[in-house]
Design brief:
Blueprint: H1 2-5, H2 11-23, H3 25-43, H4 51-61, H5 63-80
Helix pairs in contact: 2-3, 3-5
């Protein structure tokens, strides 16, 4: 699903997924959620974290982990409408 959302799928793969989504309501809902999260992330502004956070925690946790936490928080906000 994510390769279609990210516009990285071949035409054949996208067509295959769309055929499946037409017959599988659960996957169609999951796909719509992926699309909503991707749109929210693309439209979100880039924000510098507070200096204290960077100096204290980001070095220990690693930038990648911090990014994952932000993505999960945004995903929860998008999917739960808050």
């Amino acid at each position: 699903m994510t390769i279609v959302v990210d516009h990285e799928a071949t035409e054949i793969d996208e067509a295959r997924l769309r055929r499946h989504l037409a017959t599988c309501p659960a996957c169609a809902v999951a796909f719509d959620e992926h699309v909503a999260i991707a749109r929210a992330m693309r439209g979100a502004p880039l924000v510098r974290p507070p200096r204290l956070l960077v100096a204290g925690h980001a070095r220990r946790l690693g930038v990648a982990l911090l990014g994952v936490v932000v993505l999960v928080a945004v995903a929860l906000l998008v999917t739960h409408g808050r």
